[in-house]
Write a structure and sequence with these properties.
35% helix, Aminopeptidase, two-stranded parallel ribbon, alpha/beta, 9 helices, 15% strand, 2 domains, 6-stranded mixed sheet, globular, single chain
Length: 334
């Protein structure tokens, strides 16, 4: 580009001198290359990633499906240009005294960009026990976790593709937390055995990375709006896909909540409702407790939650679109 500009300059100078004039002809400006537009969120591709995770089977501790999905996630992040980071740890769970091996897997994008990273997170495990299933005989069965697990991961994998197409102006860490969904009310573990992976990451943040200032967690973001008579409709709820403002997020990170909901409203995504929701123990809590401005984008509680009906047929690409499109606009346009 510099060589072209120099040639244009000397050509113009020569033309001016040969004409005998006393001035020089202005050099026409060299237009910079057009900026890459904000990548669109491909909901169908995200839904295919949701299905791909479910094809492994329930990603429960110690299972072959868990090991296979872990390898797949690592490969997906690497294929999308991320620096892949893994954290291995062992723990019992709220559902079992047995000690299992767990792995958080994360991808760092735009590592050389200025500023602290934005942390985007979702849990990738699925629950080992369908304890909310309406059929008592099924309550010890594992949950496939299409919505509760795979949906958040699917949205973030599609965002990872966008980050590869157009680099963000700050570092972004996409983190897939293990062992979020193995808790139980009667457990004596911290947080009743929930959110083990995110707590481990908050306690063992990679030394080479600055501490994040903001975090957006995605959980249960793929539900549909079709009535499922087998599981019914939760009390004080309906079959609409709605994202209320999770109470911890709203109380401790109100500015970030407002920014996200304002973006969603501007994009016409009606699932984002300006109503305070429940207080939820989820993977944003360890980071909130550590001083990060962290929020949880979550539908709670969808009809298929912790039942054997948490399958792709009860999920919707449109729900993934509303969430993914909003987060992409936050990254590139906020």
């Amino acid at each position: 580009m510099r060589l072209l500009a120099a040639l244009c300059f000397y050509a113009a100078l020569g033309a001016s001198c040969s004409s005998g004039g006393s001035g020089t002809t202005p050099v026409p400006p060299v237009n910079p290359p057009p900026a890459v537009e904000r990548p669109a969120f491909d909901a169908d591709r995200a839904f295919a990633d949701l299905e791909a995770q479910c094809d492994f089977g329930p990603r429960i501790p110690g299972s072959e499906a868990h090991a296979q999905c872990l390898a797949w996630l690592q490969q997906q992040l690497a294929d999308h240009g991320a620096t892949v980071i893994t954290q291995e740890f062992s723990s019992s769970t709220g559902l079992s005294a047995e000690v299992y091996d767990f792995t958080n897997v994360a991808g760092l994008f735009a590592a050389d960009a200025a500023g602290p990273p934005l942390l985007l997170g979702a849990h990738w495990d699925s629950r080992a026990r369908a304890d909310h299933d309406p059929a008592p005989a099924l309550r010890n069965q594992p949950v496939l976790g299409a919505n509760d697990g795979a949906s958040g991961v699917a949205v973030l994998l599609e965002i990872a593709r966008a980050l590869q197409v157009r680099a963000p102006d700050r570092p972004i860490m996409i983190a897939f937390f293990d062992a979020e969904d193995q808790g139980d009310t009667g457990s004596r573990l911290p947080n009743a055995g929930w959110i083990l992976g995110s707590q481990y990451m908050a306690d063992n943040w990679p030394n080479e990375l600055p501490w994040p200032e903001e975090m957006i967690l995605l959980d249960l973001v793929g539900g549909d709006e079709v009535h499922n008579p087998r599981v019914g409709t939760p009390l004080n709820s309906d079959d609409r896909f709605e994202l209320l403002m999770e109470r911890n997020s709203l109380q401790q990170a109100p500015d970030l909540v407002d920014r996200i909901w304002t973006i969603a409203e501007g994009l016409g995504h009606e699932a984002f409702v300006r109503t305070q929701g429940q207080t939820i123990i989820d993977d944003h809590i360890p980071f909130l407790n550590a001083g990060v401005e962290a929020i949880d984008i979550i539908e709670f509680v969808p009809p298929e939650w912790h039942t054997t009906d948490d399958t792709p047929e009860h999920c919707s690409p449109n729900s993934l679109l509303q969430v993914g499109d909003t987060v992409l606009e936050f990254i590139y346009g906020d």
